[in-house]
Amino acid sequence: MAEQAPSRLVIASRESRLAMWQAEHVRARLSILYPLCDVTILGMTTRGDQILDRSLSKVGGKGLFVKELEVAMADGRADLAVHSLKDVPMDLPEGFALAAVLEREDPRDAFVSNDYDGLGDLPPGAVVGTSSLRRQSLIAAHYPHLVVKPLRGNLDTRLGKLDRGDYAAIILAAAGLKRLGMEERIRALLAPETSLPAAGQGAMAIEIAHTDTPRADGIDLMALLAPLNDVATSQAVTAERRVSKVFGGSCQVPLAAYATIDAGTMRLRAMVATPDGKRVASAEVHGPAVDATQLGDQVADKLRQQDALAILAEAKAAADGAA
Ligand SMILES: NCc1[nH]cc(CCC(=O)O)c1CC(=O)O
Predict the structure, then answer these.
(1) Would residue 50 be called left, alpha or beta, if left means φ above 0 and alpha means ψ between -120 and 50 degrees?
(2) Is the distance from the beta carbon of residue 171 to the nearest atom of ligand 1 less than 6 Å?
(3) Rg (CA), the chain
(4) Is residue 302 assigned to a domain?
(5) Is any ligand 1 atom within 6 A of the Cβ of residue 158?
(6) For residue range 178-218, what is the model confidence (pLDDT) as tens digits?
(7) Containing H/E element for 160?
(8) Is the pTM of this model over 0.90?
(9) For residues 310 and 306, what is the distance between their CA atoms, to the nearest angstrom?
(10) Does 147 lie in the same domain as 81?
(11) Whole-angstrom Cα distance, residue 6 to residue 225?
(12) How many domains does the chain have?
């Protein structure tokens, strides 16, 4: 039985093309589930979208993409927010919760270039664009002859900078390109063995304001949105985000965590590295997918045994030094 829906629901979203695509996807699915409910999208600009001249890890991290949307929900201007899960901090502010994690798109990193077929084809000194510390570390570790330069902005901005010739190649999440119908720009998909994905990459999440006090209209949003939750994705990202949380949980750290599930068994891989790629800790665990949180803790323990904390301290010192 479908939950009782209100006559109207408002989705808060960033205004980038990818964010709007994702909000529209959720809007369409809710309209099918609750045909009598009028679902609309409230587009808004966040601080993360405005600050484009500095690396996010230096101006406060990914939370900058979600704060304004949370304020809209707290004010009653919106009922839910759709996010790329990768941009959602590990700990949500008091009074907010994730109501659903949607089925994952391709979680891999994509190599995008107009002239080259893959990282292995780039000549020494070629400039690769990415602002992700994780991608930077991985490139430095596997392809030390390449030069990594920062690259910020939404997908169209980043592709524009590539096309202008500022970079020989750029690395982007495959999920965003696929969702926006730009899959043909992908020259190569990076195997998880080379470029282990970030926690939550490729998954969308729905956030709601959530307290013990019921809403004035008596609507149980958590129950209303539950049918959009994908159990396997939810288990995978629970494990991945646990690893991230154990190590300080932000994009200020070069950390990868990636879980796959086969017949109820999870394989969880995780990695931390210094930005120069010289020190890397990586670990892997297997176990029942329902034990996602414990698997996250186990892989974090294994990383710690390989000096992950010292590696992260070195990464942080390097980042602070560069700021
Ligand atoms: N860091 C920004 C961000 N957040 C989510 C995505 C892509 C879509 C996704 O992972 O779901 C991107 C762009 C990128 O990393 O290239």
Answers:
(1) alpha
(2) no
(3) 20
(4) yes
(5) no
(6) 999 999 999 999 999 999 999 999 999 999 999 888 888 89
(7) helix 155-163
(8) yes
(9) 9
(10) no
(11) 12
(12) 3
